[in-house]
Amino acid sequence: MTMASNRRVVLLAGDGIGPEVANEARRVVEWLDHRRSVGFDLSEALIGGAAYEATGHPLPDATMEAAQGSDAVLLGAVGGPQWEALDFSLRPERAILGLRKQLDLFANLRPAKVFDALSDASSLKPEVLRGLDLMIIRELTGGIYFGEPRGVETLPDGTRRGVNTEVYTTPEIRRVGAVAFELARGRGGKVHSVEKANVMESGGLWREEIQELRDADFADVELHHMYADNCAMQLVRDPHQFDVVVTSNLFGDLLSDISAQLTGSLGMLPSASLGALGSGGSRAALYEPVHGSAPDIAGEGKANPIAMVLSLAMLLRHSLEQDADAELIERAVGNVLDSGLRTADILQPGLTPVSTGDMGRAICAELDRLAA
Ligand code: IPM
Ligand code: MG
User: Fold this and answer.
1) 150-189, pLDDT tens digit by residue?
2) What is the percent of the chain where pLDDT is above 90?
3) Percentages of the chain per state (helix, strand, coil), in multiples of 5
4) Residue 2 has pLDDT above 70, yes or no
5) Quick check: 190 and 226 in contact, CB under 8 A?
6) Do 192 and 231 touch, CB atoms closer than 8 A?
7) Which of 47, 93, 248 to mutate to test the pocket of ligand 1 (most atoms within 8 A of CB)?
8) Annotated catalytic, 253?
9) Is 133 noted as a catalytic residue in this protein?
10) Which residues 6+ apart lie within 8 Å of 135 measured at CB?
């Protein structure tokens, strides 16, 4: 029998709760490796503060090379108070921005899906949230995060001036727009494009380019334009009106934190960052939980590994075309939540508190049951 070659996944655990949630992702990868058709070569590399301590840089060349040679990268989290005083270029967060930029991961998919068992875990009313399933597509390698000029200068009178620049070009807008329209076709068929065309020239360009793209190539998809401030309000007022939201780097950063809270906890939210489709049909891709390194609870077994495990499910779907395995993982997570197990961030009265490791083991036990 000939075996299909193993898929190369690089696991970057990082800092804070990163290593703890990475352990649970590794547990699920091992389960898949033993029980499902696709085999994995899982390797690990340093990133963030951990990499800085070991090598003097948050994104060592060896890590970049491992990422470039892989089918997909799975990242825990980076950062912590001990590295906050470092020069900007050496901060752990620069490693994430470096990976995004160097791998050209321009499309960031941030789904917000409310599991039935958690529809009353949010600070919003359950009837507003029940059954919610929306996707924010955030442009990830352009806009004000990377625009030039940037910097801080001292003026002749001794006061200082800080500058960042919002800049978008036709190709940057269109490639992320195309990802949004394509995803919408496989979902609810509706895209909201979000900018501030009322005050920003780059927002006006964004609106025109997205409309032209839709009219030329995606006329079957319903398109709405919305100002970013209104979108923030509509997300908490009536989130069910949204299917796919596509927006700039900065607005996507803000709006995806709002959509995260709709689901009850940041600890539930996965993300995918995708590059362009190559000729062989593959694309660079990075998968990570939306939550950060949460240094305040690191090392205590309190972290919720679900966002990390769901990021692995996104990896299976978007990089390995293993949709059935992705669905299996999502179903296992839903069933474990239905059974009442909860990490601290989503604990409610009467339910069973469990540790990070217990949650990971419960998900694997449920996978065993579903796959039996
Ligand atoms: C995110 C984070 C990052 C960002 C930080 C850690 C650089 O907030 O992924 O949303 O601003 O993009
Ligand atoms: Mg953010």
Assistant:
1) 999 999 999 999 999 999 999 999 999 999 999 999 999 9
2) 89
3) 45, 20, 35
4) no
5) no
6) yes
7) 93
8) yes
9) no
10) 109, 110, 111, 112, 183, 187, 243, 244, 245
